[in-house]
Amino acid sequence: MLKHWPPLSTLRGFEAAARLGSFHKAAEELHLTQSAISQQIRSLEAYLEQPLFFRSGRSVSLTDAGHDLLSTTQALLQQLAVGIRRLGQYQKPNQLVLNTTPAFARHWLLPRLGDFRRRHPDVDLWIFSTDEVPDMTTQTIDIAVRDDISSQAECSFKVLHADRLYPACHPNLLAQPQEQRSTLHGEREMDWSHWAVEAGIDVGQRDQGLNFSDPGLLLDAACAGLGIALVSQLLSRQARANGLLQPLVEQTIRGPNWAMLTHRDSETNARSFNEWLLSNLENDSPTMPG
């Protein structure tokens, strides 16, 4: 591996000359003199210790090494240009970066995003969904809404919603005998052992079956008729409204607490989203007895 990179300017000069087949045209494109382009190419060739162009009067053509370097240089410059353009997203004055879980983003937030956009068209919302809890002190995140977070430095912390869980499946699955229904298993509170301790009701769950680490995917599987699952009341509202999910019993048990972290430097920009979020969560009042 090279200890030092050649100057970027020499690579830009080389790429333009190789692509255009002319030092003169490369100079015009880069707003330089032809002698400056020639000097850049000579400097690059000296650095690489081999010629990159065949020169015949004013005509130039690439050597084999030049052809090889051209493809590499074009890919490098293209990637660099894309990366630099992407940095512009961090300079948007109305940008708001929200971190949340994939399950919350897909099952709760996405069905309501149209309403938020209508109410706040000036907010440039960036949804950054991750399985891992973010570090708000080192990452560029304004708000985090998750069921697995606690207080962090430089952030305000607020519990938003105490979730409830219940066993459910696709309505078509209820036509099958209980012993023939598959069982879907999740992690943490979505594990059936939590239901056994908290509710103690046998709904036909079995120890074996499909297992999911993502509660959103677990909910998708239940809606697809793959089996019975212990699902989040908050995340499943849209699925129930669409007729894709039906509870097996009316009993619910305690689930995780959904909470919000707001970085102190983002409190002003985050106010409209926070107010909208709290209003919608209040509208999601329980529809089943606890």
TrEMBL record:
Keyword ATP-binding tagged = no
Q: Name one GO biological process term.
A: DNA-templated transcription
Q: Does the keyword GTP-binding apply?
A: no
Task: Enumerate the Pfam families for this protein.
Answer: HTH_1, LysR_substrate
| The entry's keywords | DNA-binding, Transcription, Transcription regulation
Q: Per the database record, which ranges form the HTH lysR-type domain? A: 6-63
What does the record give under GO molecular function? DNA-binding transcription factor activity; sequence-specific DNA binding
Q: Which InterPro entries match?
A: LysR-type_TF_proteobact-type, LysR_HTH_N, LysR_subst-bd, WH-like_DNA-bd_sf, WH_DNA-bd_sf
Q: What protein family is recorded?
A: Belongs to the LysR transcriptional regulatory family.
Q: Which PANTHER family match?
A: HTH-TYPE TRANSCRIPTIONAL REGULATOR, HTH-TYPE TRANSCRIPTIONAL REGULATOR TRPI
Its name, as the record gives it, is Glycine cleavage system transcriptional activator
Task: Write the lineage as a comma-separated list.
Answer: Bacteria, Pseudomonadati, Pseudomonadota, Gammaproteobacteria, Pseudomonadales
Q: Which gene encodes it?
A: gcvA_4
